[in-house]
Specification:
Nucleoside Triphosphate Pyrophosphohydrolase
C-alpha cells in the first residue's frame, strides 16, 4: 500500500522491499486493478476491491506494523516488515538484507529495505518464483469470480502457492539504467514519488543506508 501524498491517515510508516543483484537490476511489480483475496479478515471478494495504486508499478510493501517494532530497533523492524510484505504479496522470503534508508513525506515516513542477491542468477530465480506464485493467484481469482471459492481457508487449501494477498499482478526484472527514464518520471507523481526516491538510492548510493553495525540501539518511529 503506498503512503498517502496528502493528509496522511492511518499508519504513518511504510516499508518497501528492493530485491536486487548489486548491479542495478531489481524486482519491480505491477499492481492489480482489483484485489479478490486478503489475509486480513480472511477476505474473499467475488466482485473485488479496487486497490490503492491500481494498475501502477510498485515495489512489494505496506504499512510498518506495531508487531514489527517489537523487534527492538528500526533496522530489525524494517527487515521484519519487508520480509512479511514479500511473503504476503509474492509468497517467498529473501535473504541478503543489507539495510534500509528512511525518507519523510509530511508526517509519514517510508523505508526502503534493500535485499542483495548473491548473484544475478539468484535474482532471476526469485523473479521466476514470483511469476509462478502470481500465476497461481490468477487461477484462484478465476475461481473466486466464478463462485467456486467463497472462503479464505478453501482458497489457501486449493492454492497454497498463491500469495496471501491479491496485490500484485506481475513481477519483472528492471534495471536502474535501462528503466531510469520511466523511474525518473515518477519524481513528481503523487502516486509513485516514493519509489523514485528508493530507487534513486539503488542507482546512486547516498551513503545513508543504515546497516546492522549502525543499529545497536532503538530508533523507532513515534
Amino acid at each position: 500500500m503506498p503512503p498517502p501524498k496528502k493528509r496522511p491517515r492511518g499508519p504513518k510508516s511504510y516499508v518497501y522491499a528492493v530485491v536486487h543483484d548489486g548491479g542495478g537490476r531489481f524486482l519491480m511489480g505491477r499492481k492489480n486493478v482489483n484485489g479478490h483475496f486478503f489475509q486480513s479478515g480472511s477476505a474473499i471478494l467475488r466482485q473485488g476491491k479496487r486497490l490503492n495504486g491500481s494498475g501502477l508499478n510498485a515495489l512489494p510493501g505496506g504499512a510498518l506494523e506495531d508487531r514489527d517494532l517489537a523487534a527492538g530497533n528500526l533496522y530489525a523492524a524494517v527487515r521484519t516488515g519487508a520480509t512479511r510484505e514479500l511473503k504476503e504479496e509474492l509468497n517467498f522470503t529473501c535473504e541478503g538484507y543489507r539495510g534500509y534508508r528512511e525518507w519523510a513525506m509530511g508526517n509519514t515516513r517510508y523505508y526502503g529495505a534493500f535485499f542483495r542477491c548473491a548473484s544475478p542468477q539468484l535474482l532471476e530465480s526469485y523473479c521466476g518464483a514470483a511469476s509462478y506464485t502470481l500465476r497461481a493467484a490468477q487461477a484462484a481469482v478465476t475461481e473466486i469470480k466464478q463462485g467456486k471459492i467463497a472462503d479464505y481457508a478453501a482458497f489457501r487449501r486449493d492454492f497454497p502457492l498463491a500469495p496471501m494477498d491479491n496485490e500484485l499482478d506481475t513481477v519483472e526484472i528492471w534495471s536502474v539504467t535501462t528503466h531510469w527514464q520511466t523511474i525518473a518520471g515518477w519524481r513528481a507523481d503523487e502516486n509513485l514519488s516514493w519509489f523514485f526516491d528508493i530507487l534513486q538510492e539503488l542507482r546512486e548510493p547516498s551513503g545513508h543506508l543504515v546497516t546492522g553495525a549502525m543499529a545497536a540501539g532503538p530508533s523507532l518511529p513515534g
